Amino acid sequence: MITGEQVYLPGYKRGLTQLTLAGSEFHHLVRVRRFQPGQQIWVVDGRGTAALTRIASIGHNSLDLTILAEEPGRGELPGELILAIANLKGDHLNLIVEKATELGVHQIVPLLTEHTIKKGLNLNRLERIAIAAMKQSRRCQLPQIHDLTGFQEFAEAHQSATHLFCHAGDSSCSVYGSRLRIQRPKPVIMWIGPEGDWSKDEIDLASVSDYTFTGLGPRRLRAETAAIHVVGLVSALLQDSA
To answer: For residue 84, which of 124, 114, 111 has the smallest C-alpha distance?
Structure first.
């Protein structure tokens, strides 16, 4: 029986025929989920490979798996998505990391903008959230979560990408209206500002850099809502273009 259960094994190497699973993933499968020999699970390495396996035997602290097939790119989008979002107050970034991972984002970049209030970042916690979301959503690519990065620093390092700069201005067009600017294999960077919005200098930099100013409708959205909304829309556009 094939299940949707996934385990994360970053040390997995392609081309194997057998492997051993121990530690927390073993505990979850055997002690919590009560898996038995003969059942099938997916092993993902977080680098773009998924392997369908069958439990061959279960020991006291580990289990042996037989590799049945490998499926590179399982659950992944045909293009690269990057979410650049101002670091937010409270735990809002936790929610964004979880949902952006489920929706297919490959990199998440917390930004230090002129109006950013919160300067701290718990990278370990965010990475744990991303791992859980990758497994739950049946992806095989673990998003890279960057440390807090300056707005201009990140902009200067990614000049060749397609930039969707989310801003509620009169000249902003919809995500759907911006779709012709999305051209593979260029990565798509979606920019989401802080609670206090972008500064004038940041808007000017985006303008002179020929970013696509993108609106998200007539309603005023919280930053976390805007992030999830735009990622979902762009993810759908990429999926339809595959």
So the answer is: 111
Q: How many structural domains comprise the chain?
A: 2
Could you give the CA distance from residue 238 to residue 242 in angstroms, rounded to a whole number?
7
What mean pLDDT is reported for the chain? Answer: 93
How many Cβ atoms sit within 10 Å of the Cβ of residue 88?
Answer: 22
Going by C-beta distance under 8 Å and a sequence separation of 6 or more, which residues neighbour residue 135?
Answer: 6, 7, 8, 44
Q: What does the pLDDT look like over 140-158, one tens digit per residue?
A: 999 999 999 999 999 999 9
Q: 142-161 b/e with 16+ CB inside 10 Å = b? A: bbebbebbebeebbeebeeb
C-alpha distances (whole Å) from 127 to each of 107, 133, 149, 209 are: 11, 10, 16, 31
Domain boundary among 20, 47, 72: 72
Closest CA to 194 of 227, 170, 229, 218: 227
Spatial separation of the C-alpha atoms in residues 216 and 172, rounded to whole Å:
9
Q: Are residues 104 and 186 in the same domain?
A: yes
In 32-158, alpha helices (H): 92-102, 123-136, 151-157
Query: Do 135 and 20 have their domain in common?
Result: no
Q: Which residue range forms the structural domain that includes residue 163?
A: 81-240
pTM for this prediction: 0.93
